[in-house]
Design a protein that fits this description.
Elements (H helix, E strand, L loop, with lengths): L3 E4 L9 H15 L14 H4 L2 H17 L2 E5 L6 H9 L11 E5 L5 H11 L4 E7 L5 H18 L7 E5 L5 H9 L2 E4 L13 H9 L4 H15 L8 H14 L4 E6 L5 H15 L7 E6 L8 H6 L4 E8 L26 H18 L4 E6 L4 H21 L10 H11 L6
Helix pairs in contact: 1-14, 3-8, 4-8, 4-11, 9-14, 10-14, 11-14
This protein binds 6-O-phosphono-beta-D-fructofuranose.
Pathway: Carbohydrate degradation; glycolysis; D-glyceraldehyde 3-phosphate and glycerone phosphate from D-glucose: step 2/4; Carbohydrate biosynthesis; gluconeogenesis
GO molecular function: glucose-6-phosphate isomerase activity
InterPro entries: G6P_Isomerase, Phosphoglucose_isomerase_CS, SIS_dom_sf, SIS_PGI_1, SIS_PGI_2
């Protein structure tokens, strides 16, 4: 199990002796947790340090939620929601009302109509809330929690305390004090793991387990990636390879990376990836802007720009080798749609052909190509993929001499909004 990274040009030639030395230093800095931002390198060995007891505790809570609730509302924004959303979407079965608990997200945006309609929807369901905020002070989820907590207290009375689970910092934040005062069940976001690197902590694991997915397999995949990526080899280390190619393209004048997929289930992996790379790299006037497209949909929308517009883009395809389910085009007697030439072709194979066609067209149009291939969409491979991205992101930021683990720029809008709304102290 590995993520294969293919580049449209020669990769080996990109690694000069000087770059090799820099990569090795970055690698050692990450593995020994001594590089810039080392206080936030807790995610590096997190999968291998998880105990069966911790996973069991999450599973017990998830089972309790599943036994007494039909809906789990997960309140969070950024890294406090995108990881679980990405995994849930990737493992979802569209159009099927199964026995899985329904997970609904709130607090990722501020909308009166969304919250009102959510509360109206919840009225006929049994509900648990999981409010997630590392800082415990982020305004958008805090607003959602204010309304939903009031709803839970009015509806469930004293029982509401056992239907609210808080995932936050161990030592500080308004959410922590409230959780202690009310006696809510608590999970910790480790101090040395930032929001966008937290999918394998309780932040991601509880909603994923509550939805009925196998968190042990997810962690097994992440652990495998952790082991594989510990080996510094520029030929076989997929995270190094991806980071090197990205940096090369950035230096050659391609500041925008489009992640393309043919699978709608990966849309939120793309969204998670955008936060991961955007917040980690986009600093000090540097960084690759992460964007995303879904094909074939966007071939009939943004495809024109990608092929022919301003040349600043490179494209990274995230492909899945094996389809989880498929259809084969059949021979039609009348062939009135003139599609019999496709008979015998699976729809997954159509997408593979479409990938080949798109990649060569875009390459000819001046858009360099990377293809990341994963084997299949299940818990294990998704765990592997997400860990791979986190490691590649750390290399990428360090190659730009940027600390991957802070996000000072996000504070600017927050300060402004507090001033505009006259928050005490601003
Ligand atoms: O978990 P918190 O502290 O509410 O933060 C949510 C998100 O807000 C940010 O701090 C800023 O966007 C992200 O880094 C983080 O994932």
């Amino acid at each position: 199990m590995n993520i294969s990274v293919n580049y449209s040009e020669d990769y080996q030639g990109l690694v000069s002796a000087e770059l090799h030395e820099k990569l090795q230093a970055i690698h050692e800095g990450i593995q020994t947790k001594t590089s810039t931002g080392s206080d936030f390198l807790g995610w590096v060995n997190w999968p291998s340090s998880l105990t069966p007891e911790f996973l069991q505790d999450i599973k017990v809570t998830a089972d309790r939620i599943r036994s007494n609730s039909e809906v789990l509302v997960v309140i969070g924004i950024g890294g406090s929601y995108l990881g679980s959303k990405a995994v849930l979407e990737a493992l979802s079965t569209p159009f099927q009302k199964d026995d899985h608990l329904e997970v609904i997200f709130a607090g990722q945006l501020v909308s009166g109509s969304y919250l009102k309609q959510l509360i109206a929807y919840l009225d006929s369901k049994e509900v648990t809330l999981n409010v997630i905020s590392k800082s415990g002070t982020t305004t958008e989820p805090a607003i959602a929690f204010r309304f939903l907590r009031q709803y839970m207290e009015e509806r469930y009375g004293e029982e509401s305390a056992s239907r609210i689970i808080v995932t936050t910092d161990e030592e500080k934040g308004a959410l922590l004090s409230l959780a202690k005062e009310k006696g809510y069940k608590r999970y910790v976001v480790p101090g040395d793991i930032g929001g966008r690197y937290s999918v394998f902590t309780a932040v991601g694991l509880l909603p994923i387990a509550a939805a009925g997915h196998d968190i042990e397999q997810l962690i097994a995949g992440a652990k495998k990636a952790e082991e594989e990526l510990q080996v510094f080899d520029i030929k076989s280390n997929a995270a190094v390879k991806y980071a090197v190619i990205r940096k090369h393209l950035y230096d050659k004048g391609y500041p925008v990376e489009i992640m393309a997929t043919f699978d709608e289930k990966l849309t939120y992996v793309q969204e998670w990836w955008k936060q991961l790379f955007g917040e980690s790299e986009g600093k000090e006037g540097k960084g690759i802007f992460p964007a995303s497209v879904l094909y074939s949909t966007d071939l009939h929308s943004l495809g024109q720009y990608i092929q022919d517009g301003k040349r600043m883009l490179f494209e990274t395809f995230l492909m899945v080798e094996k389809a989880s389910d498929d259809l084969t085009v059949f021979e039609a007697e009348d062939n009135r749609d003139e599609l019999n030439y496709l008979s015998g072709l699976t729809l997954h194979d159509f997408n593979k052909a479409c990938h080949e066609a798109t990649a060569s067209a875009h390459l000819a149009g001046g858009v360099p190509q990377i293809t990341l291939m994963m084997e299949q969409l299940d818990e294990k491979h998704i765990g592997h993929l997400l860990y791979f991205y986190m490691m590649a992101c750390a290399y990428s930021a360090y190659l730009l001499d940027i600390n991957p683990f802070d996000q000072p720029g996000v504070e600017d809008y927050k300060r402004n909004i507090f001033k505009i709304l006259k928050k005490p102290g601003y």
